[in-house]
Design brief:
Low-confidence stretches: none
Strand order of the largest sheet: 1-2-3-4-5-6
Mean pLDDT: 90
Radius of gyration: 14 Å
Largest sheet: 6 strands, antiparallel
Order of helices and strands: HEEEEEEH
Length: 119
């Protein structure tokens, strides 16, 4: 994947994460604040007093996540068509949106499930 392809995919996934977090938080009545600063998305769980940080690392072509449970790196796994695929943990293969759902649930105390973008 070229650098420009990575940057476009990373921007798209960060925007999708932000929309999904806001959607599920509203449905669950959880107080969440998302803020973006360039390639960094900060998800603050107000009542829980905790944060999840998601950012793109262009040099590594990865999405990095920092949460209470640790730090994780995700690489794009190409699907059948070049523009599809999932972001997978480089250590255990967990899908990014599943991992974020688990982290949000753990840190908020509410079941929050993010939907990955359609392939």
């Amino acid at each position: 994947m070229t650098d420009s392809e990575f940057l476009a995919r990373a921007e798209s996934v960060l925007a999708t994460i932000e929309r999904e977090v806001e959607r599920v938080a509203e449905g669950a009545d959880v107080d969440v604040e998302c803020s973006r600063n360039g390639n960094v998305l900060e998800i603050e769980l107000i009542e829980a007093g905790s944060k999840i940080i998601v950012n793109s690392q262009a040099a590594m072509q990865e999405i990095w996540v920092a949460s209470r449970s640790g730090g994780f790196h995700y690489r794009h796994e190409a699907g059948a068509a070049e523009a599809t695929g999932r972001w997978r943990d480089t250590r255990n293969g967990t899908e990014l949106f599943k991992a974020l759902s688990d982290a949000l649930t753990e840190q908020s105390g509410e079941t929050l499930r993010l939907e990955p973008p359609l392939e």
